[in-house]
Recover the amino acids of this structure.
């Protein structure tokens, strides 16, 4: 079964997925074994690798090291074509639907084809919608685009639905790395009601309570990155939560 088929199956069965996002620029490769051990015994179902600005060789070296210590699927969440490596299991082929910069709607994708031709990576077309998380994110700076305001709920809904109609297989609502607050519950709920494809939510989630709200609002998968970068004890907090004992 493919990575995407497993995500679809989990959605249909009402199972909640959880991914740890690792940014190669903010991670010490010497700490890989110890960190991945915590990931392996946690509720994590996937590992995402990527960042807005990453050294060309950093991603591949980190993926290769991570693969030595886990059987979880390792999926690229690239900020640039240079972060694509065949060492991973899959690739979120991201289209920045919330922006209007043609480079991130189709330009980078064309550039990526030469790297993907002959690759064994499972490529998953993914709509990426950046929503205001209270700070100017690295994504906005790198892509020269603005996040959609939380007040423009209908625009967010219509953007996500347009992505599905264009053929995206996943939809990713993102508040951005280091966001002051995560995607609002009302937004998750209303987008979920419109979509038939799995919904991913990430950015600004730093507590078990925020995780629960994202899941209860309709997220099929939640992504956490910064919270683990700042405090690895977050793993223990999640594990001890009654919510996860009952639901996952």
């Amino acid at each position: 079964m493919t990575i995407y088929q497993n995500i679809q199956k989990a959605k249909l069965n009402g199972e909640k997925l959880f991914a740890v996002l690792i940014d190669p620029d903010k991670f010490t490769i010497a700490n890989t074994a110890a960190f991945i051990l915590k990931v392996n015994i946690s509720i994590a179902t996937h590992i995402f690798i990527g960042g807005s600005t990453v050294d060309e060789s950093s991603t591949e070296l980190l993926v290769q090291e991570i693969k030595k210590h886990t059987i979880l699927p390792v999926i690229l969440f690239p900020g640039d074509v240079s972060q694509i490596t065949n060492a991973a299991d899959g690739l979120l082929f991201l289209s920045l639907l919330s922006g209007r910069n043609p480079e991130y709607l189709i330009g980078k994708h064309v550039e990526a084809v030469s790297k993907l031709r002959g690759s064994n990576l499972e490529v998953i077309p993914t709509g990426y919608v950046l929503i205001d998380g209270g700070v100017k994110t690295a994504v906005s700076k790198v892509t020269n685009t603005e996040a959609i305001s939380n007040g423009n709920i209908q625009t967010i809904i219509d953007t996500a639905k347009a992505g599905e109609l264009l053929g995206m297989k996943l939809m990713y609502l993102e508040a951005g790395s280091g966001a002051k607050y995560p995607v609002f519950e009302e937004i998750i709920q209303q987008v979920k009601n419109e979509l038939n494809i799995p919904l991913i939510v990430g950015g600004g989630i730093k507590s078990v309570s925020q995780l629960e709200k994202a899941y209860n609002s309709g997220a099929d998968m939640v992504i956490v990155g910064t919270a683990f970068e700042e405090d690895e004890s977050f793993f223990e907090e999640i594990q001890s939560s009654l919510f996860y004992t009952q639901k996952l």
User: Anything to note?
Assistant: The mean pLDDT is 93. The chain has eleven helices and eight strands. Residues 102-116 form the longest helix (15 residues). The chain has one domain: 3-247.
